[in-house]
Every structure is written in C-alpha cells, then in structure tokens.
Known about the structure:
Elements lengths: L1 H43 L10 H10 L9 E3 L6 E3 L7 E15 L3 E14 L3
Antiparallel strand pairs: 1-3, 2-3, 3-4
Helix pairs in contact: 1-2
Amino acid sequence: MAEFAVTATCAFVLIFGISGAGYAVYSYNTLAAATQEAAHYAATNGPNSPNPATVAQIQQLVQSFAPGLNANNLQVNQSQALYISDPNLTGYQDAKVTATYSFSFWVPVLGKVTLPMTSTAQMLVSQ
C-alpha cells in the first residue's frame, strides 16, 4: 500500500507537470500568432493608408486573436512606437508589435509561479 502511495504521487506530479508545460507552450504559440496577425494588420494599414492602424486597434486585435489567454495579463506596445524606420531599406517603415503575457501556473512544491512571455513581430509596411 505504501508503494502505491509513492508511485501514485510521483505519477500525478508528472502528469500535471506535463499538462502544465503543454499549456505554457500553447499560451506562447497563441501569443506569437496573435502578435503576427496584429503586425500584418498594422503593415497593411500603414501610416500612409486612408485608414491607418492605431495602437488601440492593435491592442484589441492581439486580444481577439488570443482566445485562451487572460486579457488582464496581456500587454501590447506599452512603451514603443507602432511604426519604425526600416534599418535595411531607407525611406521605408516597419510595423512592429510587441506583446507580453504573464503566464501563471501552480507547481506542487513551489506554489504559484509566473513566467513572463514576450513575442515581437515586425513586417514591412506596404506602400
């Protein structure tokens, strides 16, 4: 009976650890995909277009493309401009979107752990 208790405890910790790691990978993949979609939108609706993208629109797009993420832990383009000069092409601009997500999970021995995730997408603005 004692052997079962030790084995079952190790098995449950392993199973929950694997599922937590899988959810962390899912969260980062969702964050990266949402950031890329927002950068694509910003690139196609550049500063010279009839309806240029705003930072508020980009923030809303990232949140709408990240359905499994807690919107309270998601921050987009807090301290940087949406359009930057392209370092390789003089006279062109890039749309750069950076999103940060605070992923929280519970580890049996350590308690609640927060893992910061950051994704950046950059695309050339269509002229």
